[in-house]
Amino acid sequence: MLSLLNLGQAMAFFRRSQLPDKDSLTPLYAMICEQIHKEGPISVEAFMRLVLHHPVFGYYRQGLPVGLDGDFSTGPEHSQMFGEMIGVWCFETWQAIGKPTSFALLELGPGRGTLMKSLLSGTSARQDFHDAIQLYLLESNVTFRQMQQERLAPYKFMHLDSLDDLPPLPLLVIGNEFFDTFPMRQFIRLSRGWRERAIGLKHGRLVFCDIAIRHEEAVILDPKAKKGQIVETSPQSLDVVRCLSRHMATHGGAGVLIDYGYDVPTGEDTLFALREHKHTDVLSKPGETDVTGDVDFSALRRTAEEEGLRVWGPVGQGAFFSQMGIHIRALQLRRNSPTHAAEIDEELYRLIHPAVMGTWFKVLGLSRQNFSHFPGFPEHKQN
Fold it and tell me: Is residue 173 predicted with pLDDT exceeding 80?
């Protein structure tokens, strides 16, 4: 376990090593090098868990990664229409589940609170809907929590540390670019069989390598897979979907999960890293770089179905927002503010066009089996 107590020892090891790229020096880089030197290579999943969620040096534990001044920006940060369309979905879905006088509205990883602010502002005329909301935010970043307190000050809400703390109420859940933050395992087919991708050391520098896997893992992987094929899985993501599904199966509700990813695994490596809005080396500057990968929507779908839910899609984000009325909303905004028409058009293009976010970003819908229509999803797209 990496801790502050062995930081000095790790830094000493780092200084002794012949590292080609001194620019990669971060406290976490040195600590990971020291751990691998002592214990051997670590899996991609373990590496991601450390660089993203280390309690002191983890990427999501420090700084503000989201926004134009950060390393990446999300749809809600680019346009109020994103949150407004999710607000339309929430209102229509609330109606579809019978207009409960009290329900839990949960956002997973709300960041700066931008999406939720647009959602609540856009539905402010629906007083009966607002009166029924019990708002919950699942957020681990302390700085983001403070920003949410400020941005959502007019609204009453509660931060959650665990999904187990949800009340026994119908649930509407929103997850935008949440599941890509979880570590994933990568298995690779080599000439000697299936192995797990890992991070090791070579001449004092972090490098990719592979390690052995358990027999029970190997037997469920395709023995006829081509050499170089990769299988990715995110156990934590599936645990979250399982927990949400069980809650909805018991208490009712629905959810939309929005992220970049694929519906059919391709066997390719989707691991990548971002810093200052640019792609960079996955192994460079750990703790100061966002390391992520595409979301496997087929795995999320199977998990929800195993818990008895009906699953819709995924459909492209552009198709979903078009169904929810984003073109009408853009027209209203242009009429209200003609001097910003070009900016509004640019925002619309970014959100729905296939060349930007329209198809790479997908929307998965979750509901009880008795749903006959899911807002935002054409009938022929349901599963």
Answer: yes
